[in-house]
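Sharing a chain and its predicted structure for anyone who wants a worked example. Both blocks are below, sequence first, tokens second.
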Amino acid sequence: TALSPRYVLCEVVSEDPRCRQCIEDRAVGLAVRDAIGRVHGDYGLACCSVSFTVKYLNAYTGTVLLRCRKDSYRLLCSALPFVRQLESRNQRYPCFLNTLHVGGTIRTCQKFLIQYNRRQLLMLLQNCTNEEERRCIQKSLLSCSLEEEQSQSGDEEDDDGTE
């Protein structure tokens, strides 16, 4: 139905390293609403504002999850390229929002994000200029997934023991 939500997964892209440190969901919401108003006028803003919200924000990674109604997600997505800056604590940070995925549930967006991050890490590994960089990235990867790996190997041992 038109009332069901759509989730738009974006990343904040900025050359200014201070930008990500100061990202707040309120600032992202205001910047997106401002862009919708500039591109689609009062009508578009009213359509998108009905259930628009910033559902998730990770300032460290620059990941943003926006929610809107299904019947207005195209208006929202078409206005996102016009977000040019985020304002926080009376500071303006030039940036843009890169739309990564549009999904019907938060879970589908999470699954997409996991795959997207894996592809990004593989590209990082392929672009390493020396063996030291490669070892550093591999070490970081292993430290991030160590608990998951242990629980998976523990499950396999339990399966082997019962057969």
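Comments welcome. The radius of gyration is 20 Å.
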